[in-house]
Design brief:
about 110 residues, mainly beta, about 45% strand, two-stranded antiparallel ribbon, about 15% helix, 9 strands, 7-stranded antiparallel sheet, 1 helix
């Protein structure tokens, strides 16, 4: 939880997981094998369906994705998708309530 002048502000567990991983790597500490790993990334959705991913930006290049499934059991206001890139790489994408996208892979 992050506190502001007006009170607590909830912080995404995925954002915290990415920050912790980045700090560990920068400090030269090995992250635990079972550490949750999410990365924030840019996702482009089609104009008529802002929830459904169309392409993702990985390593500074855009890659089209095919949705191969959906994720259930997420928090209210979140949507999750299992996607595959044209190269065959698969990942889970989650769009959080405030519109930020996270993937369960590190590229």
């Amino acid at each position: 939880m992050v506190f502001t002048g007006g009170g607590p502000l909830p912080v995404s567990s995925r954002a915290l997981a990415q920050a912790e991983y980045d700090i560990r790597m920068e400090g030269g500490w090995e992250p635990p094998v079972d550490m949750e790993r999410w990365i924030h990334l840019l996702v482009d959705a089609r104009p008529h369906d802002r929830w459904r991913p169309h392409r993702v930006q990985l390593a500074e290049a855009w890659h089209e994705v095919d949705v191969i499934g959906t994720v259930v059991g997420l928090a209210e206001g979140e949507r999750g998708f299992r996607v595959r890139t044209r190269t065959g790489a698969e990942m889970t994408l989650v769009r959080e309530r405030l519109g930020h996208w996270y993937a369960d892979v590190r590229y």
